[in-house]
Amino acid sequence: MATKVVDLRSDTVTKPSEAMRAAMAAADVDDDVLGADPTACRFEAEMARIMGKEAALFVPSGTMANLISVLAHCDARGSEVILGDDSHVHVYEHGGISTLGGVHPRTVPNNPDGTMDVDRIVAAIRSTDGALYYPTTRLICLENTHGNSGGKCLTVEYTDKVGEVAKAHGLKLHIDGARIFNASV
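The structure assignment produced for this chain is given below.
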């Protein structure tokens, strides 16, 4: 019986093995800002291919990735993001979206499985009639796997349903996917 524990709580608690450290030390590197880092370019191309996207961007942390995504989708100060009350972006990161982007978090209760009731998401979407008085809803955030719900995986069906809600209301959908490959397993 195996006795080794693999800790998948976070992308920041994983310790690189000696082989991983050796690979990092031997990696072919150059200036990433100028697009000249061959390792970063290969990594971004591979992630885009795996995820079925036209491009990918390597950033050093999940926090930075979520911040960039929220600010890209909520491109006007006074925007609002709908997200779970126990989601990572809300509990640990919303200071960044608020301070740097002027983005207002609007929480919906997370269920024990990490989902939010779709009818509650819909109810949280603000009408543009109140645009003078209220933030403008621009984004819905999900988290897969949901860390504060014990690493529960959101189903494809649930994610698609929330995506349909977002489309129907002219909103964007962001998935905090720090553990997305754990979810795929």
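Interim note for the steering committee: The two ends are 21 Å apart (CA to CA). Residues 18-51 form one domain.
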